[in-house]
Fold:
Amino acid sequence: MFKFFRRNKEPEKVIEQKTEQALEKTRTGGVFEQIGKLFEVDDITDDFWANLETLLLQADIGYNLTEKLIEESQRRTLDENTKRTKDVERIFRETMIAVLQEAQGKAQSSVDAIHKREEQDREWERKKREKEEAKKNKQKSVPVAPISIPRNISADGEKRPYVILVIGVNGSGKTTSIAKLARYYQNGGGSVVLGAADTFRAGAIDQLKLWSDRVNVPCVAREPGSDPAAVAFDTVKYAQDHKIDIVIIDTAGRMQNNHNLMEEMKKIERTIEKAQVGAPNEILLVLEAVIGQNGLSQARIFTDAVGVDGIVLTKLDGTAKGGVAFAIANEMKIPIKYIGTGEKADDFAEFESEAYVHALFRR
Amino acid sequence: MFDTLSDKLESVFRGLTGKGKLTPTDIKTAMVEVKRALIEADVNLGVANDFIAKVEEEAVGEAILSSLTPGQQVVEVVNNKLIEMLGGESTGLTLASQPPTIIMMIGLQGSGKTTTVAKLALDLRHRKQKPLLVAADIYRPAAINQLEALGRQLNIPVYSEGNQVAPPLICQNAIAKAKSDGNTVVILDTAGRLQIDELLMNELVEIKNRVNPTEILLIVDAMTGQEAVNVAGEFNRRVGITGVVMTKMDGDARGGAALSVRSVTGVPIKYIGTGEKASALEPFYPDRIASRILGMGDVLTLVEKARAMYDEEQATKLQEKMMKGKFDLEDFLNQMRNMRKMGPLGSLLGLLPGVGKQIKELRNALDTPEAELMLKRTEAMILSMTPAERTSPEIIDSSRRKRIAKGSGTSVADVNDLLQQFKVMRQMTQKMSNGKDLDMASLMSGMGPGMPGGVNSRKQATSRPVDPLAQFKGSSGGGATGAFKKGKKK
Ligand SMILES: Nc1nc2c(ncn2[C@@H]2O[C@H](COP(=O)(O)OP(=O)(O)O)[C@@H](O)[C@H]2O)c(=O)[nH]1
Ligand SMILES: [Mg+2]
Structure:
């Protein structure tokens, strides 16, 4: 079902290069670079492990993952019977990469499986409806017109808008990331429309409109204060009418413990589904790199509410590096999908575990 | 199992107390738990280590070692020390002796500066000040529109020169304008920036030099992690801050960044932001944040919230009625509405100390759409009764039941259930009023399966009594706070 996009995906090499470029900006002398320097010692001692633990905790990795990383690394060091710092460093990096990749792999396949199952259920219901419809028509003995199957539920893989819903707490970088994502897909040859469903925060609609002008994509909006779900609905319809490939919906920032706003978000999701069966196709949670352990609570509660397919990790041009996103990958198997490295539309890259980890520890 | 620090420490010490005296080593073990709690609350590791060292020094010396409840004693020392290090008392805003007062707002991108500008302006206007807001963020798309929209909403003037004039000049011009217009406070909304952005940090210094602000407030997101120390430290080193505002405290972050920021800068935290509305700005109380960091819940906030929602007079009346066994369906309805007014019960219970797993389950049960529906239906049924029926439910015979069911869109069986539950509840209140406290949890479990938190929560309710009502019934708050209140005065 995502074939269309796979085709547009950049070849691995290019991604790697772009990631490298983006990551250059993330070299800001933070705690990860200190971890890199840790491996400049001659011997791996108990002190070394203690220092590593300290730095990992300071990187917002959290206790659980920190302990796991250290235990795994120590175990493998023993297994390989090595004490060379070079080996330990490789083992440590591999352990870290494995955590990230596991989230990518597992989350990807489980998300795909869920989508597939949902798709099947819908297909079944649609057929049932069609049958009933046909029966009704027969009873009325009206000449049966060929039932026009709405494009968005055609079973033969016909193209329809791919809908992305972007969610997160206030100020995490949702709107900016949406502009970046629009630019990213445009570069890949897709057409994009943005939906200004943050109708709450003062100036939010203007902000998205300004961005849509800058990256030169249309933006569907209503008055400030109007129903965000309705805006989302309009946007999907607009994309269907104009045969646009990708819909990206901006939403208002919300705290995950705010019951009413979480309900509002669920309603936005349901309404998008009404505009197009199977949509939203992707739900992205935007986390900023400087966030602490609350990131885990966000991932958990947003996932419970609407399901999160991936994380956009923003503001990596700062000194913090979003260690909690690793903890989220470890505990919830939600992958990091994109990274934001500045305030311009091009400061953006696809996340690639290996390149990222190596860049993090580069010294 | 052990959700709070006190629980964890009790378990660490359990068994040890048997040997009469705890040793300094035992305290060290406890400190590992304390440290973990701090890190999980996002207190910076370095700050946490310093903190632990201080606590240890104090704890080893005190009578804790021979205490019967060493876990609680340690928590108390930790809590007191935390309050002390967070600044002890709450500190307000400094106003210039010679108006206008100039307040400069600085911080990272997305930390909440613009929103806080509006909140502060509103607060100052309540204090009879005449604020002018200045749009000095010329970089972020629509930042100026945002401030202007807020100004319009609050009817507070906004000074802007678009996005082509350099911010230091805009600020300078704004001060001149404020003076000529008779504004007593000028609040500068600067662009968000990274503390390592040379150019933009210089811009802040330039603004500072030109307008000589009365206050330079650093806006910090309460969800900030370990990096808070570097961010705040650098902003302070480069620009020199006079106060901190912690924003987004309405989230469920434990807010350890408060301790980190306070420790590295030494400047007071002056306000906290607790929501998106312009009125959601509160003074900072170190004791409240302390217990939140330790995961003990913010009892005082709960008590205040409940008080604000709950009419004391009504409460006294209710109690009197209960004593006389005259509690009726009207009161029942009011009671229910009060509970709903307090907002999503979940967030409220989250503020309670020692809210363990069982209670979380109870709170989930209360927050379900089914529970909500149940409350709505009960309300509809009571509203379909005549006043006489509400005060004397005994008179509700079968024809009345039919009428009530019809009027409320429910069934006679539903009405029967409600009346049955009410009967049980009335009996209970009579029993309880004989000297016992009104315990909402047991009250609800007494209401049977139909009510939220009914039968399946009975077990939980008895295993750890949570008594939201007790918190605002008396004037001294709930029993759980007692320990910390005592500690504070010491
Ligand atoms: N330095 C930096 N700033 C960013 C990045 N992404 C977003 N921002 C800034 O963060 C602030 C909040 O972003 P915005 O997109 O409005 O957040 P939203 O409230 O989640 O929509 C703005 O000032 C953005 O310019 C990033 O990758 N790096
Ligand atoms: Mg936004």
